[in-house]
Structures are given as C-alpha cells and as structure tokens.
Amino acid sequence: MTTLFETRRYLIPFRTGLLPQIFCDTLVLGSGVAGLRAAISAAESGEVIVCTKDEISTTNTSWAQGGIAAVLPELPDEIDDTIEAHISDTLTAGAGMCDPEAVKLVCTQGPPLVQQLIEWGANFDKDSNNHLSAGREGGHNANRIYHAGGDATGREIQRALTTAAAAHDSIRLFDHCFAIDLLTPSNDPGAPVLGAITWHPKHGLQVIWARTTILACGGAGQVYRESSNPPIATGDGIAMAYRAGASLQDMEFVQFHPTTLYIPGAPRSLISEAVRGEGAHLLDDSGNRFMPAIHELAELAPRDVVSRAISQKLAHQGGKHVWLDCRHIPNFEIRFPSIWRTLKSFGIDPTTDTIPVHPAAHYQIGGVRTDLTTATDVPNLYAIGESSCTGLHGANRLASNSLLEGLVMGAIAGRLAAQRADDATTPTSPATVISSILPSTHAELDLTDVRSSLRSTMWYNAGIARTRTKLADACDMFDLWGRYTLDKVFDTPDGWEVQNLLFTARLIARAALNRPTSVGTHWIQAEAEADDSLESDPIDTQLHASWSRNSTEPVYHAVSESVG
Ligand SMILES: Cc1cc2nc3c(=O)[nH]c(=O)nc-3n(C[C@H](O)[C@H](O)[C@H](O)COP(=O)(O)OP(=O)(O)OC[C@H]3O[C@@H](n4cnc5c(N)ncnc54)[C@H](O)[C@@H]3O)c2cc1C
To answer: Domains in the chain: how many in total?
Structure first.
C-alpha cells in the first residue's frame, strides 16, 4: 500500500520563483567533520556555501571523545601497527558485511589527512617524549586512536576545520539555516538535485541553487529515547535524500554505545570507550564484574556485545543501569577532563564512586547509499559522513573510524565538486520547482508528544534486543502516525524534525523487520523468536538491502556492488 512516506515529496508548499534565490557551485549541508572537510576541498575551485541548522560547531563531531583511528606513517617505536592490521580490525568488526574496497580506501587515505589536520592546527595529545600519544579502543588490536584534550578530540577537530573553512574566501558559512528539502526539477526517478530549500529565522525561506549538493547532515541518534547524540541528530539528511529519491542502505544497523551516564533527567553523556581502554570495569548490582565470563576481551569486547550483555544483565537483575568502576584508574581527571567535569556536576567522583551507566543509541551505520566517489544514485547529489553508507562499517562500526571516514570521504566529495565546478557541462540553470500540498484534514498535533512517543517506541521495539513482533508493531504504528503527521505543513524546525524523525524511524524499523537473522549490531532475540508467529525467509547475511521511495520493496546488493 502506498503511504505518505512514499508520496510526500516536500515537507512544505512553495514556488521557487517567489522566493529569494542564492547561487553557488557547491552546496554543503552540514558543518561537521565531513561537511567542512568537503567544503575546504570544493573551495579549490568554485564558490561554496555551507549550511548548518544550528551554530557551526553544534555537531556530533564536536561531541566525539575517544579519538580518530589511523596508522600514521611515523609511529613511535613501541607501537607495532600497519594499515593492513587496521583494515583487518575494521573488517572483523563489520561482521562480514564491510565493503573491502571502502575499508581499504579509508584506512589508506586517512593517515595523510590526519597529518594535514595537524598541519592546519589541530592539537593532538602528546606523550612525555613529545610524540603523538595513541590510545586503544574496543576491537582495535593496536594503539592507533589519536586524541586531543584528553577526551575532547571532536571539539579540537571541529575547531581546526572551522578555522580553516572560515579563513577561505570562497566559502560562505550559513549558520541557523535549516535545509528542509533537496530540490529536483520533477518528482521523476532520476531527476537531478539542483540545490535545497532552506529556512532561516531572520530571512525565512530561501532557495539555494547549486551545481553540486553534498549531504553531510550527520546521523539520527535522536530517533531513540536513549541517545548519546546531540539534539541536532534528527536524521534530516537521510529523510530529505529519501524524499528526493535516493536509495538508503543498511538502515537496520544502529550502533548502541554501552556506557552513557544514566541519571534520570540528565542528558545521556557518553563515558568514552577509552575509559574502558584505560581499564574501567563493568559491575552488576552485587558489585561483580560480569564481562570476563561473556567475551575474551571482557569490557573491550565489540560495542554490540557489551551493550547486549548490559541489556541482558538488566533484564535479569532489574534496575535501569549497571556500574562502571574507574576507581583504580590513575590520573582520571587529567586523562578524561570533560568526563570528569560532567561527573562532578552530578556529584560523582570517579576516584571514589562507581558510575551508573546504560547503553544508548550512538551511531547510524546505514544511510544514503554511495559509491566510493561519494555519489548517490540521484544525479548531482553526494553524501558523506554519518548520513551516508559507503559500506566501510559493514554491520558494525569499529570505534573511532567515523571521524576518519568523514575526513576521507569529505575530501573526495570536495575534490569532485571542485572538478564539477570547472566542468562546463555541469548543470547551472535553475528550474522552476513548485510544491503544492493540500491542507490537512486531521486534528492539530502535540509535536512534543509525537516526538517522545516515537523515541520510546524505537527504544523498546527497535533497540538493542529486537523481535520481529515488536518490529512489526513499530512499523504499523509509524504507518498510522504518518497519516496524520506527514499530511501537516509546519513552519518551524520543530515540526520538520519530527517529520524527518518519523521517516527515519520507519526506515530503520522496516529494514530491521526485513532482516530476520542477527548480524552485527542487529540482534534478533532468539528466545523471544521461538514464540514469534511472524515468518519470513532469512536473507543472506552477505547481502545489503537498500530502500527508496520509488519502490515499496527493498533491493538487494552484494557487498561490493556499486551504486547506480
Ligand atoms: C558522544 C559522541 C562521541 C563520539 N565519539 C567518537 C570518537 O571518539 N571517534 C569517532 O570516530 N567518532 C565518534 N563519534 C561519532 C562521530 O562523532 C560522528 O559520526 C561524526 O562526527 C559525524 O560527522 P558528520 O560530519 O557526518 O556529522 P555531524 O558532525 O553530526 O554534523 C552534522 C551537521 O549537519 C547539520 N544538519 C543536520 N540537519 C540539518 C538540516 N536539516 N539543515 C542544515 N544542517 C543540518 C548539523 O547542524 C551539523 O552541522 C561520536 C559521536 C558521539 C555522539
């Protein structure tokens, strides 16, 4: 049955000819690591606009703590590591579903880009010999995680990239500029993207025409009630690409981080994996360490294993959280200053207290399907960073690989955009685009209630422990909610975000329902499944499924099959 999820092309009615028009060669939506890195390369040729819905530095990137994974060319003597080993660890984490070419590309092209970042002024932490200091995180078999300010790596990368972008004459940074939808001259499959319709609190609706549009809107952690992500992570990029006809891949794979601070009413602040890398232990209510009995790497087992172990422990012992014991870690305050400050603000002293922790949605592995040039299957649209799915992460992301992916794919997308700006055949002329939407016949909505119901449903029905019955229930609920939420026209980001969350939630739930066997982060609870009345054929764990609004059923792809 066709629903508004398939037919709603734009969130608002408009006529481009009646709106203010802005022109550029490259439009970058998003100002995190991926977007800014792309903008800097794109600005080598042509005029670039970076558009971001909040402050430039309000990004997931700024919140990254642990670091960036890379095998730098000049390693300190005590580190025995190779790019091949990084590739191998990434492939292992991805549970057989990584695209090996994507892994090779990111692990190989990443190190020089990290070095370039250092040349642009990013200050990574150094040891007493003035060598860059590399830490370890779960799934990595060598110390290759470079960090800054102890646990403030993302903030430093964001600062360095923002400074570099702001200094560039050809880059205009538009903050508080909400991208509502990508513009195409028609709603036909294959219609090219010609820019975006945006909204600014002071300037209102504006049309930004671009020869190339690069989507770098980050992830969708806010789709879950428990999330480590900042409020901006509402899946806008994923939803707007879907409305424009792009295929989305691997949406069922969502990484849950095992250790976020669990204090009711407080944001779910991340307690970085690097803390477990320094030796922190997970304890149950009786004070017993439970991870060594579950996995040989104990607390440093892959994130999905630790998250499931905590979730099962809570199912058996009750309660809302387990405990993280850092009391034996020396110099906690110096190594993890931001986490220290957060804990202190809640009266927790990690040198004497154990910390209440709980898993939370952390990283959207699936996203807009791209090839290794960052091209999507919609002409003129490129996708990078957490909004995209290159196949790097397979069914589970190796810690600290996402900042690296943002740098590498950002640089590739930017270079391509610069070439397109020089290419006379790249389309430039704007089209007249008209969106007509009939007034809603349904009642007014309490948007706060829709948002919180959606987030709870995703947490309980499509979270760490999934069953096909619960996933099917979620899909049914979202189809119903779509009828009276997607027919509305909102005029502020609050409403558009709720609509985007609903698109994204439904895509995750449907993709999860479509994959009846567990792989990577997608875990179907075996004991519950025995009573599960829904039947379906298992799909090959080596196949990726992609979804687009142009077909109601998924399309399957082999691991390395390219876009197109
Ligand atoms: C707490 C935390 C810790 C993490 N730690 C690490 C780590 O140690 N190492 C690692 O590799 N990864 C880590 N990650 C993941 C990593 O930070 C992200 O995957 C990565 O930063 C994503 O970068 P991005 O450029 O794709 O998106 P983001 O950095 O999220 O940027 C998205 C941008 O898109 C903009 N945007 C969104 N919607 C719209 C819209 N409608 N209109 C206009 N603009 C829009 C936002 O305003 C923002 O500017 C962590 C994530 C979190 C939440």
So the answer is: 2
C-alpha 483 – ligand 1 centre gap (Å): 30
CA of residue 105 to ligand 1 center, whole Å = 21
Task: Check: pTM over 0.85? Answer yes or no.
Answer: yes
Helix, strand, or coil (residue 421): helix
Whether residue 84 is contained in a domain is answered as: no
Q: Identify which of 458, 382, 367 has the alpha carbon closest to the alpha carbon of residue 415.
A: 382
Q: Could you tell me the CATH number of the domain that includes residue 457?
A: 1.20.58.100
* 364 CB-near residues (< 8 Å, 6+ apart): 219, 220, 221, 235, 238, 251, 254, 255, 386
Question: Per residue in 456-494, pLDDT tens?
Answer: 999 999 999 999 999 999 999 999 999 999 999 999 999
What is the per-residue pLDDT for 302? Answer: 83
Ligand 1 pocket, residue 54 CB under 6 Å: yes
How many whole angstroms separate alpha carbon 18 and alpha carbon 547?
Answer: 34
Domain span at residue 530 reads: 446-539
The active-site residue, picked from 136, 243, 276, 303, is 303
369 is catalytic: no
- Does 233 fall in a domain? no
